[in-house]
Amino acid sequence: MRDHRPRQQVWSIVPPHMLEAIAQNGTPEQRQMAMATLSADLGFRAERLVAEGASGTSVASAGAGSPHKNRSVFSADNGTSLPGTLKRSEGAAATGDAAVDEAYDGLGGTFDLYWEVFGRDSIDGNGMALIATVHYGNRYNNAFWNGSQMVFGDGDGVIFNRFTIAPDVEGHELTHGVTGATAGLEYHDQPGALNESLSDCFGSMVKQRMNGQTSAQADWLIGQGLLAAGIHGVALRSMKAPGTAYDDPTLGKDPQPDHMSRYVNTSSDNGGVHINSGIPNKAFYLVATGLGGNSWDRAGPIWYRTLTGSGLSATASFADFAKLTADNANSLYGSAVRDVVVQAWRDVGIDLATVASWYYDKAVLSTFTSPHSMNAWAYIEDLGWRKIQPLTPDGVTNMFDLLTEAQASGRKVHVYADGSLIYQAYSV
Amino acid sequence: MQIIFEISGGFAPTPGLNAPRTIDTAAIDPARASELESIVRDVEFFELPTRLNTTNPNAADYLTYAIKIKDGDRVHSVVLTDPVSDEGLTRLIDILRMISA
Ligand SMILES: [Zn+2]
C-alpha cells in the first residue's frame, strides 16, 4: 500500500475519519488539534465539517472492516465557489434535482465497485468522504476533479447536456482521486494519458456494473448521453473504437488514436492526455473482452493491482504500465491470462516481448553452451530459447549451472527475461 | 480592442471547441462590446499576472483559458485554470465563451 506516502497533501498518522470523529466529539483541545490537522489537508475536510455542522448531518462512525460510504452532493447554484450548498447527504432521499440525484447515484456505484470488487474503502482506502458539486458555473461545459472533490457543470444544452448524466463520468472523476492517492501519475504526456485512461477504465467498469453488463454486452462509451440533440456523435470517447465517438461541424472529429503508430504529439491538453489515452483504453477493452465475462472479474483486478501496487512510478510510460499489467496478470491468473494481456498491448502497438518481465514457475526444458566462449542459452517453458546475459564469465557460469541443475532435477525457476536475454534466475 | 481567446483541456477536449477565437469589439454587437470593455477595465486586465492561478497537482480535467487582449498599443496575455473564483474574470470568460460559440 502506498496510500499514505506524503505527496502535496498532508496526511496524518490518524485516519481522517477518526480525526473527523475527534473534531466533532473530542475534548476542546482534541477538537482543535483534529481540526488543525484536517484543515492542513487542502482545507477541504474542514470545509466539509463546517458544511456538515451547519446542516446538522453526522459523519459515519469508524469501524474496522466495514466500508465508510459517505456521499455529500452540493450545488454551486451556477456560481463557482466550492463546495456550495449541501443538497443531499448519505442516506437522504432523492431530491428530484436530476443533477444532484445522478451525482449521488454515480458516486454510490463508484464507491460500491471499489469496495465490493477491490476491497478499497473510498478514494484514499480509508473512508474519505465523497464530495461532489453540481450546477457549477454558468452553462459550464465540463466536469473536473479539483484535487479533493468532483465538480459538474450543467452544460449549455446546445452542445453538451449536464455532465452528471453518465455514471462513467462520476467514476472517472472519483478515480482521479484514487490515482492521486496511489500511483500519483503526473498529469502530462504518457503518465497523464495513463492517468486519464485509468479514469476511463474504472469509470466504464462503474457503468457496466451498474447496468449489469458483461464486457461483450457493454458499449464501452464514455459520456454517453452527454452530447446534446443535434450533435453528430454517440459519446465523448469510445474505448472499443477510439477516434469514432463523434464527427461534427462544431466539435470536429474525435481525435483519439487507437494505436501507437497514430500517437498524437501535441502541447495542448497537457500533452494530449485525453487524446492518447485512447491507446491504453483500447488495450483494456481488448483484455476485458478477450477474457470474457465481466470487465471487473479479471481485467479490473489486473488494472487495479497495477494502479495501486508498488511498481508504477509517477512518470510511467505506456510500456512501463503494460509490462506491469502483464506481470500482474501472470501472478493473479497465470500465463494464459498474461498472454491475452500481452496480445492486447501488441494490438495497440506496444510489444512486450522487447520489455523484460518476471516469468514465474517455469520449467527449464533444455540448455546449451558453446565450448570455447562464455555464451550460454536456456530453453524456458512458454518462452523458448533465451541467451544468458553476458555480463561477467562468472555470472554466465553461475546462471547456466543453476538452469542446468533445474533442468536435471525438474525444479521450476523464476526468470527475469525479455525477448532475447535472461537477466536473473532463481530456482524454486 | 482585439481579443484572442482559447480554451483547452477539460474532461473531453474537442478540436472544434479548442481552436483559438479572435474577437474584435468593433465587429460585434455594440452593447456586448461595451460590456466587454468595461469588464476588461474592471478586472484591470492589463495589470494581471500572466499566470493567474496555480493548479493543484492532483487536479484533473480542468479547463485552461488563455486570453490575449490588444488595445491600442497595450498587449497582455493571461492564462488561468478552473476553478476561477473571481467574479469579474468568471463573467469575462462567460462572455467570451458566448461570443465565440
Ligand atoms: Zn480525467
Give structural notes.
The complex is a heterodimer of chains A (428) and B (101). Chain A has twelve helices and 15 strands. Chain A is an alpha+beta fold and 428 residues long. A six-stranded mixed β-sheet of chain A has the order 10-14-15-13-12-11. The model of chain A is unreliable at 1-64 (pLDDT under 50). Chain A has helices at residues 16-25, 28-40, 44-55, 98-117, 167-181, 189-211, 269-272, 278-291, 299-308, 318-333, 335-347, 393-409; strands spanning 71-75, 85-89, 130-136, 143-145, 150-153, 221-222, 237-238, 247-248, 252-253, 357-362, 364-369, 376-380, 384-388, 413-417, 421-427. In chain B, 27% of the residues lie in helices and 29% in strands. Chain B has helices spanning 30-42, 87-100, and strands spanning 2-9, 21-24, 63-71, 74-81. In chain B, helix 1 (30-42) runs antiparallel to helix 2 (87-100). The A-B interface holds A 7-9, 42, 80-82, 136-138, 141-148, 151, 156, 158-159, 163, 169, 172-173, 176-177, 180, 184, 186-187, 195-196, 199, 222-223, 226, 236-237, 246, 248-255, 268-270, 274-275 and B 8-18, 56-63, 82-85, 90, 94, 101.
List the keywords.
heterodimer; A: 428 residues; alpha+beta; Neutral Protease, domain 2; 2 domains; six-stranded mixed sheet; five-stranded mixed sheet; disordered N terminus; B: 101 residues; 4 strands; binds zinc ion
Map the helices and strands.
The complex is a heterodimer of chains A (428) and B (101).
Chain A: H1 16-25, H2 28-40, H3 44-55, E1 71-75, E2 85-89, H4 98-117, E3 130-136, E4 143-145, E5 150-153, H5 167-181, H6 189-211, E6 221-222, E7 237-238, E8 247-248, E9 252-253, H7 269-272, H8 278-291, H9 299-308, H10 318-333, H11 335-347, E10 357-362, E11 364-369, E12 376-380, E13 384-388, H12 393-409, E14 413-417, E15 421-427
Parallel strand pairs in A: 1-3, 3-5, 13-15
Antiparallel strand pairs in A: 1-2, 4-5, 6-7, 8-9, 10-14, 11-12, 12-13, 14-15
Helix pairs in contact in A: 1-2, 2-3, 4-5, 4-6, 5-6, 6-8, 8-11, 9-10, 10-11
Chain B: E1 2-9, E2 21-24, H1 30-42, E3 63-71, E4 74-81, H2 87-100
Antiparallel strand pairs in B: 1-2, 1-3, 3-4
Helix pairs in contact in B: 1-2
Bound molecules: zinc ion.
